[in-house]
């Protein structure tokens, strides 16, 4: 039951962090991009670059940041889940962690 509750709380935590980071990062990036686009000279930028290209690059940058943020949060959530699993194993049988440690050391030494 503890494992199920922990995995559920990791999922809720992951969703909350993704939402919080997305909102903060995307808002900041959109503000910076919009500021730089609006401060561009009209005769050198807007007359030369089509509107569709500006729109595509603007949305592309925001989508890349959202994707990277999601991946980083997912990795952190997986590490929290791995740590929780190790704690549960240690509570059940601490000797298993010693065997796992030797196995990991063996894999990385080969």
Task: Give structural notes.
This protein is 91% helix and 0% strand. The chain is mainly alpha-helical and 110 residues long. The longest helix is centred in the middle third of the chain and has 42 residues, at 51-92. The protein is elongated, with a radius of gyration of 23 Å.
Q: What can be said about this structure in brief?
A:
The chain has 110 residues and is mostly helical. Helices cover 91% and strands 0% of the residues. Helix 3 crosses helix 4 (94-109).
Write the layout of secondary structure elements.
Elements: H1 2-38, H2 42-46, H3 51-92, H4 94-109
Strand tally is 0
Identify the overall geometry: elongated
Mean of all residue-level pLDDT scores: 78
Compressed to H and E, one letter per element, the order equals HHHH
Main beta sheet: strand number and arrangement? Answer: none
Number of helices: 4
Helix content class: over 70%
End-to-end C-alpha gap: 37 Å
Stretches where pLDDT is under 50 for at least 5 consecutive residues are none
Counting helices, strands and paired strands, the structural category is: mainly alpha
Assembly status = single chain
Q: Strand content of the residues, in percent?
A: under 5%
Indicate the radius of gyration in whole angstroms.
23 Å
Please supply descriptive tags for the structure shown above.
mainly alpha, about 90% helix, about 110 residues, elongated
